[in-house]
Design a protein that fits this description.
Layout: H1 2-17, H2 21-32, E1 39-46, E2 52-59, H3 63-69, E3 71-73, H4 77-85, E4 89-91, H5 102-110, E5 115-123, E6 126-135, H6 143-218, H7 225-251, E7 260-262, H8 264-281, E8 284-289, E9 296-298, H9 300-318, E10 325-334, E11 337-343, H10 374-384, E12 388-393, E13 399-406
Parallel strand pairs: 8-10
Antiparallel strand pairs: 1-2, 1-6, 2-3, 4-5, 5-6, 7-9, 10-11, 11-13, 12-13
């Protein structure tokens, strides 16, 4: 009885100290194959679709028998019957059993497998798989050995359930952390939006006056070339400031967009047509991969603004790199959501920057080249459309921005 208790103790220790299912299975099988005689053991788990048993571990199985055991149908054959019923199977001459699958019979006869015991692995009244022990000797499995295999199967069931619960808890924690981060970001956007709205309205009027007066002065014929150049600079910079104010006003808006059915592909083509000349001048190849996609429920003008921001960012990033410069835009649809990806071959997004990429007024561009509002405005627009906007670094290099929106209706 002592060796049996020692094996159970070994398996119980593995279960208690590790949430790694593979380690538990390996420990259990190693212990079981040293009970008595020349033994073999195998462990199968039911596939997610519930149709088959998949070999997850084995000790001592000959090559031919291992190949047969890789995938077994539930409800058919010896192990499939145990998986379907949960009833322990004990055989003195396994090769003579009429339920044995033909391919398995040839392998067992070839390898002279005699005794066999197979038990179901349970967890919370569900059958998760089977644990099987076989031997070449004529000795029958004793009640103690059968009890040992059943107890070991119970321990493995506990380990599988613990691992599942741990994995589920980890997943829920990650989802909670993600939701918390999104909530913090939304509150930050709301606070900055309220401030931006007041500032933008106060600045907009003097900017309009400056721009108007500058244009009036430029109509004067008596201006010298030097003065005209200086006035043009004032006009350009005032216009740029006005565009920033417009972005601020859009960023701070709190009324719903005017939505209607629109095709992502059409919006992308309009933006790429708008940027075509600039992209061509900088040697950027544009690749489009459009999959047939139903309309999304969106404000077309706002959607174009988001796409333009993403394309401009990719354009700016790639000008810092040598060729090849490739801008890839692709669309796809799945489970009631449409996804658009904007991929570039630029330097990518530094790890310390990635968490702040959508923060208002945050920019990696030099002074005068960006206000840090483009991605923040885009994020707000997508959020109003009940969508998602996120960024990643591509494994092969470069950045990837993903836009996900609900399909029409």
């Amino acid at each position: 009885m002592e060796p049996h208790l020692r094996i159970l103790h070994t398996v119980a220790q593995a279960v208690s100290r590790s949430l790694d299912v593979d380690e538990v299975l390996r420990t259990a099988l190693d212990a079981l194959t040293h009970v008595t005689g020349h033994e073999m053991s195998s462990l199968h788990l039911i596939t997610p679709d519930g149709l088959n048993l998949q070999l997850k571990g084995e000790r001592g199985l000959p090559a031919k028998l291992r190949d047969v055991n890789v995938l077994l149908p539930v409800g058919k054959g010896q192990l499939g019957g145990v998986a379907a019923t949960g009833v322990t199977l004990v055989l003195k001459s396994a090769a003579d059993d009429p339920t044995l699958l033909p391919a398995a019979r040839d392998a067992m006869e070839n390898d002279r497998i005699r005794g066999l015991v197979s038990v179901a692995i349970h967890s919370r009244e569900r059958i998760l798989g089977t644990l099987t022990l076989g031997r070449r000797t004529d000795d029958s499995f004793t009640e103690r050995e059968i009890a040992l295999v059943e107890a070991t199967a119970d321990q493995i069931g506990i380990a599988l359930d613990n691992a599942r619960l741990y994995s589920e808890t980890r997943r829920q924690l990650e989802e909670l952390q993600q939701a918390q981060a999104q909530l913090i970001h939304a509150e930050k956007l709301s606070a900055v939006g309220q401030l931006a709205s007041g500032v933008a309205h106060e600045i907009n009027n003097p900017l309009t006056t400056i721009l108007g007066q500058t244009h009036l002065l430029l109509t004067q014929q008596a201006l010298s070339e030097h003065v005209r150049d200086r006035l043009s600079i004032i006009s350009d910079e005032t216009a740029r400031a006005a565009r920033i104010v417009q972005n601020l006003l859009l960023f701070s808006r709190h009324y719903p967009p005017e939505r209607q059915p629109c095709l992502l592909e059409d919006q992308v083509r309009r933006v790429l047509d708008l940027k075509a000349y600039q992209l061509q001048q900088d040697g950027i190849e544009v690749v489009t991969e459009f999959v047939s996609c139903p309309p999304v429920w969106a404000d077309g003008h706002q959607l174009q603004q988001v796409l333009l921001n993403l394309v401009q960012n990719a354009h700016h990033a790639m000008t810092k790199r040598e060729r090849p410069r490739v801008l890839t835009v692709r669309t796809s649809a799945e489970a009631g959501r449409a996804t658009l990806a904007v991929l570039d071959t630029g330097p990518g997004i530094p790890a310390e920057v990635l968490p702040r990429i959508f923060d208002p007024f945050f920019t990696t561009k030099p002074p005068g080249e960006g206000s840090g509002l483009g991605l923040s405005v885009s994020y707000g627009i997508v959020a109003e459309h009940r969508g998602r906007l996120w960024a990643e670094n591509r494994p092969e290099g470069g950045a990837a921005f993903f836009l996900e929106l609900p399909l029409e209706g």
